[in-house]
């Protein structure tokens, strides 16, 4: 498995070398958009694993990480230069196209048929695809897909990932002795401050996406609201126990199939009642590493529910699904532009990680 991971990392790093970022997919028409920038975290996890007794020696692992570092720097600059607002210093998604998506051409044209600004809406379709949350009420200005405003949203999860990357890149530069560690340490501190100012809501005890066009927060529940807990961006600003208390009050353990993507049934696949493994993992991992006893207990309870649902689904159908239904233990999710997929890489990965962290 470690060799497979190494090959995947090499492929993604090669894409950055050729294109300056990881495209939304491995086809030419995906070059106008990227995807959530998690490669730095993947390289760091691989380096940590190999340094701790993996198949490669610690020196080999460090050599690989240091060799990858200039490309990770390049990807970071892409997000700063092309996806960051000079007004507040936080990032947003932004596809560099105003045409229908080739992979969803017919759907885009049909949805935009009556739009007064079709190029803007086409950009929003592609931008939503860049987020990974395609599609979701998170990006709606009103109640329908035709009101997408994705590029005008400052997302909690994207900025949490970039904060984590700034911390990680600072650590890698220190390990590799480049002298650039302080640049990333300062960048992480600035981002955490701006996230607290713009995205944190003291009354609700959580972070919310910020809508740049009207200067308001989207005060709906999404698991993405809690990624600062995973990233550590709350430290120095908010006590972890406050966020854990918010998650307890939301009573997420009432759902037998896992944490819903939202509480809005908008007929989109990143909304109620669908549960996605990456969202589940970020919430559970944030709670597990929060340093709070109550957080750890809630992480274990949510993990138990997730593993039970995944096992029930596999036991009855023989497959793992890309997404599940929060209302029914083991049931696959639905909605969106295609049928639910069986497989499935991230589902299997989340199950294995939770088993290792809570049961081994």
SS content category:
mainly alpha
| Broad shape | globular
Measured as a percent range, the helix fraction is 40-55%
Give the low-pLDDT segments. Answer: none
Would you list the SSEs in sequence order as H and E? HHHHHEHHEEEEHHEHHEEEH
Largest sheet geometry:
3 strands, antiparallel
From the N-terminal CA to the C-terminal CA, the straight-line distance is 19 Å
Strand arrangement within the widest β-sheet reads 1-4-5
What is the number of strand segments? Answer: 9
What portion of the residues fall into strands of 2 or more residues?
A: 5-15%
What is Rg?
A: 20 Å
Note the total helix count.
12
User: Taking all residues together, what is the mean pLDDT?
Assistant: 97
Describe the structure.
The chain has twelve helices and nine strands. By secondary structure, it is mostly helical. A three-stranded antiparallel sheet has the order 1-4-5. It has a two-stranded antiparallel sheet with strand order 2-3. Helix 2 (39-51) packs antiparallel against helix 3 and helix 10 runs parallel beside helix 12 (345-359). The longest helix is centred in the first third of the chain and has 26 residues, at 58-83. It is globular. The relative contact order is 0.08.
């Amino acid at each position: 498995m470690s060799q497979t991971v190494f090959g995947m990392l090499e492929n993604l790093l090669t894409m950055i070398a050729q294109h300056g970022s990881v495209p939304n997919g491995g086809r030419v028409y995906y070059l106008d958009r990227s995807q959530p920038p998690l490669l730095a975290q993947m390289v760091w996890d691989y380096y940590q694993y190999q340094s701790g007794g993996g198949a490669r020696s610690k020196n080999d692992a460090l050599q690989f990480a240091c060799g990858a570092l200039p490309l990770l720097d390049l990807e970071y600059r892409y997000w700063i230069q092309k996806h960051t607002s000079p007004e507040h210093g936080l990032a947003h998604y932004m596809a560099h196209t105003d045409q229908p998506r080739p992979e969803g051409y017919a759907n885009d044209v049909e949805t935009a048929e009556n739009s007064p600004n079709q190029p803007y809406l086409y950009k929003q379709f592609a931008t939503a695809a860049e987020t990974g949350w395609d599609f979701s009420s998170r990006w709606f200005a009103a109640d329908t897909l035709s009101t997408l405003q994705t590029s005008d949203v400052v997302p909690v999860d994207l900025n949490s990932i970039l904060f984590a990357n700034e911390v990680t890149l600072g650590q890698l530069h220190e390990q590799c002795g480049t002298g650039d560690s302080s640049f990333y340490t300062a960048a992480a501190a600035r981002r955490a401050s701006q996230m607290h100012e713009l995205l944190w809501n003291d009354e609700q005890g959580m972070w919310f996406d910020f809508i740049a066009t009207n200067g308001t927060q989207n005060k709906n529940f999404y698991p993405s609201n809690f990624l600062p807990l995973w990233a550590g961006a709350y430290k120095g600003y908010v006590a972890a126990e406050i966020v854990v208390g918010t998650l307890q009050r939301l009573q997420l353990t009432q759902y037998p199939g896992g944490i819903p993507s939202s509480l809005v049934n908008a007929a989109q696949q990143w909304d109620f009642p669908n549960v996605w493994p990456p969202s589940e993992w970020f919430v559970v991992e944030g709670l597990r590493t929060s340093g709070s006893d109550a957080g750890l207990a809630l992480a274990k309870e949510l993990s138990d529910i997730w593993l039970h649902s995944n096992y029930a689904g596999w036991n009855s159908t023989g497959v793992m699904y890309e997404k599940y239904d929060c209302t029914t233990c083991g049931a696959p999710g639905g909605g969106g532009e295609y049928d639910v997929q069986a497989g499935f890489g991230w589902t299997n990965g989340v199950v294995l990680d939770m088993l290792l962290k809570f049961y081994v």
